[in-house]
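Section 5.1 Outputs to date
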Amino acid sequence: MADDRDHMMYIAKENAKEIHQVLKSMKFKEYCTFKACRDGIQFVVDDHNFQQANAYLKTEIFSELDVRVDEVRLRVPMNILAECFNVFSGASTALRLTYDGPGEPLVVSLEDEGIVFKCSIMCQNPQHHHKMYDFEWKNENVLAKVILKPNKAKEIVRDLDKTSPTVRITVTDGHISFLTDGELGKIKSMIPAHSDQVEHMEACRERVTFSYRYNLIHRMETAFLASSKISLRIDNRGVMSTQFLIPRTDSKNIFIEFFTIAEVEWDDG
């Protein structure tokens, strides 16, 4: 796409489909916060109560990234943004994002086989709305860490009992399990540490166990399905960090991370 680059922000990428997959995996609220700086871009979706999703796209995955201020930060309507990226379905779709400053729209331009689509999205200043929750994540407070290949985890999350209000997640050095208690009764799914689906599993206690609202786990289902590797960590407050590695054709990775607050700590067996 030929155009001048005299913008406050100019971002170009050869494969727009990758960003559409990211947006689709975290589309659970009406708005997202879009951030851009010289190091890359970030999308943040926050329900201001129990969960926050972050996607990090580093400079190296873009063909061009020019941000002429310290940071561009916008509150963008999520559905409109995701639909823009979905206009063309091919992997050859070229993307350009431009922004010229306060009061100006975020302009999404896509080109596929000579056909150009352009969408101007009016955005809001995120400072005029709720501040994003700071989860104050500290690695030294992590009680459990599991790194999984996605196949078995995808099946478990997809088949969770939808009538269960919560999902109890338990990690020991020997297994990770998911327990629901709904209309079908108590159902436990387990992945043992010796499974070929497990790359790493450790617990700083004999058993680390917390429960999370079913709907919060369900929000992550699309990310589970899209991922090639999953990292799950739980800290001493029960806050769960779930990182999803989104596969690309090269080695420059895209990560989506969900922070989820525990609903109830389970003390019984």
